[in-house]
């Protein structure tokens, strides 16, 4: 709870700092504030948490773990923002404030214990992101990304709300526990309204996390938005979306899995194939990462399809691995883009001879995203697949492994470009902040890959 | 208040559900078929208002205030979305002098 209060007050403080033109203090203040919030989150680590505020919120281990990983990723992303927003406009404080407001919405999303809070959390996050996607006011791609994201986001909110309303109409409550009791007590007399509502909630949530066939906004928005914002959307926001999805389904609908599991199964397989096969054809690294984020949404859906007691920790491991590796990839993209002015694979040519450290960390990230052993990505995939195998969904795992092999092709294109092609461009300038973030993320990726027990037993 | 509740309850619940579903569908079709950004936006609002109507009806039928409180949350967030959405639409209009979403094809779909 303290974390949420800190994260809500911090953006207001930043706005005041901006008002008094203290632009130099913005980054240190927001990083320190986030770290304090992270400390309070750890302090609330408690196995027997009780719902607070009349059952509105529940800060249990699940919510603390996901709050921590989202806050940590945000710190890493904010460190990359040194000198980034100044190029867009002189009103820098607002950008930091809006990112932190989105993070406050995310904390609500991972700690809800009532459908009302789920809705409010998602909306606080989404409304902030609509603004962030369009902060380059004169860049047409950024405009287009903002409008598409806004229209699709509002559209999907409509589905989510209609679903919540029908579930309320059938069960008579927004409280997750009351809804679960309604489902468990008389499984034979569940109203058809409830099933319709459940399907609409699935549609709404799949829109938000970017799962096929509701993914079509993702590549455009990710490509059009400023790269730093894309980093935030594809790591922190995706993690939060899956945490909320999983929390809702494991708390309320676990016993109805015969009804919704086939639907999600089809969505998962579609997401995997569409994400991976379309990513193969991309010439732009940024757009490739957008499609790769769709395919990773497919792997994350595994945990919900094969819902069990270990689902939370496998989503946690996978989301951490994916977030950290994506941050490296986008950081490298920002640096390369600054030098060459292009997002294409060709701009990575010959990076290894000029910037061995940058090339090495990017290689670690690509190996992790592809799921090669001794990286965090492998551990995440291993947990996902073993859980699906426990539920006897063998053919699903076979399809997923085929997709993992397809993904190796496009991840390795970058590595090949960096190590085996040559270029006449000079060295890419790597600021100290970037070196820190890249190094730390690469270390986290390898450490989790070698000692997965560090984070896999947390929840 | 009692007579008001009775007046709402004099219409069967199924009729409210049907009416809301129809309004919601009109909204969905509007979003999918219309090409003007503002009309799409209005269709989204129509979807949200269908939800508000249904929530109020459920709330009265169950004698539970939670549904009506939720309606206020939806209204507040719809207002926030209007503020952001119109700002984005104005920004697009300044750059393109058009509100037709067909001009938004610089990025492929």
How are the SSEs ordered, and which strands pair?
The complex is a heterodimer of chains A (459) and B (109).
Chain A: H1 2-19, H2 26-43, H3 61-80, H4 92-111, H5 115-133, H6 140-171, H7 176-185, H8 192-209, H9 217-224, H10 227-253, H11 257-280, H12 285-305, H13 311-340, H14 351-354, H15 356-370, H16 376-390, H17 394-420, H18 432-450, H19 453-456
Chain B: H1 2-9, H2 13-33, H3 37-62, H4 66-96
Helix pairs in contact in B: 2-3, 3-4
Task: Give an overview in words.
The complex is a heterodimer of chains A (459) and B (109). Chain A is 76% helix and 0% strand. Chain A has 459 residues and is an all-alpha fold. In chain A, helix 3 (61-80) packs parallel to helix 13 (311-340) and helix 13 runs antiparallel to helix 15. The two termini of chain A are 18 Å apart. The mean pLDDT of chain A is 92. With 109 residues, chain B is mostly helical. Chain B is elongated. The model of chain B has no long low-confidence stretch (mean pLDDT 89). The chains are: A mainly alpha (459), B mainly alpha (109). Chains A and B meet through helix 5, helix 6 and helix 9 of A and helix 2, helix 3 and helix 4 of B. Chain B: It is a multi-pass membrane protein. Chain B: The chain crosses the membrane at residues 13-33, 40-61, 67-93. Chain B: Its EC number is 7.1.1.-.
Provide the descriptors you would attach to this structure in a database record:
heterodimer; A: 459 residues; mainly alpha; B: 109 residues; elongated
Whole-number total of structural domains of chain A: 1
Reported for the largest beta sheet of chain A, the result is: none
Mean pLDDT of chain A: 92
Low-confidence stretches of chain A: none
Number of helices of chain B: 4
The largest sheet of chain B is: none
Structural class of chain A: mainly alpha
Overall average pLDDT of chain B? 89
The outline of chain B comes out as: elongated
Oligomeric status of the shown chains? heterodimer
What general outline of chain A do the C-alpha atoms trace? globular
Task: Give start-end ranges of low-pLDDT stretches of chain B.
Answer: none
Rg of chain A over CA atoms, rounded to whole Å, is: 21 Å
> Helix- and strand-based class of chain B?
mainly alpha
- One letter per element, helices H and strands E, the order of chain B comes to HHHH
- The CA-CA distance between the termini of chain B, in Å, is 51 Å
What's the number of extended β-strand segments of chain A? 0
Largest interface: A-B, 39 and 41 residues
Approximately how much helix is present in the residues of chain A? over 70%
């Amino acid at each position: 709870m303290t974390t949420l209060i800190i994260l809500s007050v911090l953006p207001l403080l930043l706005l005041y700092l901006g008002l008094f033109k203290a632009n130099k203090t913005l980054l240190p203040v927001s990083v320190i504030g986030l770290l304090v919030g992270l400390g309070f989150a750890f302090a609330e680590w408690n196995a027997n948490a009780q719902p607070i505020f009349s059952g509105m919120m529940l800060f249990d281990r699940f919510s603390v773990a996901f709050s921590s990983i989202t806050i940590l990723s945000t710190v890493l992303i904010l460190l990359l923002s040194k000198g980034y927003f100044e190029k867009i406009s002189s009103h820098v404080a607002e950008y930091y404030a809006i990112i932190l407001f989105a993070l406050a919405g995310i904390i609500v999303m991972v700690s809800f214990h009532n459908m009302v809070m789920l809705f409010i959390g998602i909306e606080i996050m989404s409304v902030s992101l609509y603004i962030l996607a369009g902060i380059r006011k004169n860049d047409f791609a950024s405009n287009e990304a903002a409008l598409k994201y806004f229209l699709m986001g509002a559209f999907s909110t409509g589905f989510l709300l209609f679903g919540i309303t029908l579930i309320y109409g059938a069960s008579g409550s927004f409280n997750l526990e009351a809804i679960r009791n309604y489902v468990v007590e008389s499984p034979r007399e569940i109203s058809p309204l409830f099933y319709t509502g459940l399907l609409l909630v699935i549609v709404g949530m799949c829109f938000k996390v970017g799962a096929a066939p509701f993914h079509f906004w993702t590549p455009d928005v990710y490509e059009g938005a400023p790269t730093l914002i894309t980093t935030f959307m594809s790591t922190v926001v995706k993690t939060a979306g899956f945490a909320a999805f999983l929390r809702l389904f494991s708390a309320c609908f676990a016993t109805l899995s015969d009804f919704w599991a086939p639907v999600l199964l089809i969505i998962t397989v579609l997401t995997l194939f569409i994400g991976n096969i379309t990513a193969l054809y991309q010439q732009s690294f940024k757009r490739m990462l957008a499609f790769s984020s769709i395919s990773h949404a497919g792997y994350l859906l595994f945990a919900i399809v094969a819902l069990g007691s270990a689902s939370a920790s496998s989503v946690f491991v996978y989301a951490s691995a994916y977030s950290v590796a994506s941050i490296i990839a986008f950081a490298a993209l920002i640096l390369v883009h600054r030098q060459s002015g292009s997002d294409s694979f060709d701009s990575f040519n010959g990076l290894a001879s000029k910037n061995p450290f940058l090339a090495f960390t990017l290689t670690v990230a690509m190996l992790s995203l592809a799921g090669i052993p001794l990286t965090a990505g492998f551990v995440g995939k291993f947990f996902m697949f073993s859980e699906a195998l426990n539920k006897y969904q063998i053919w699903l795992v076979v399809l997923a492994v085929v997709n993992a092999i397809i993904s190796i092709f496009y991840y390795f294109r970058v590595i090949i470009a960096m190590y085996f092609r040559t270029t006449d461009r000079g060295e890419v300038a790597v600021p100290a902040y970037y070196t820190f973030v890249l190094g730390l993320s690469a270390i986290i990726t390898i450490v989790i890959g070698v000692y997965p027990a560090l984070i896999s037993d947390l929840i | 208040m009692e007579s008001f509740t009775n007046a709402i309850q004099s219409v069967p619940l199924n009729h409210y559900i049907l009416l809301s579903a129809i309004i919601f569908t009109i909204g969905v079709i509007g979003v999918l078929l219309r090409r003007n950004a503002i009309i799409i936006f209005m269709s989204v609002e129509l979807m949200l208002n269908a939800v508000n109507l249904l929530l109020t009806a459920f709330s009265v039928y169950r004698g539970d205030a939670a549904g009506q409180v939720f309606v206020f949350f939806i209204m507040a967030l719809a207002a926030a979305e209007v503020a952001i959405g119109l700002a984005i639409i104005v920004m697009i209009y300044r750059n393109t002098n058009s509100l037709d979403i067909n001009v938004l094809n610089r990025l492929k779909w």
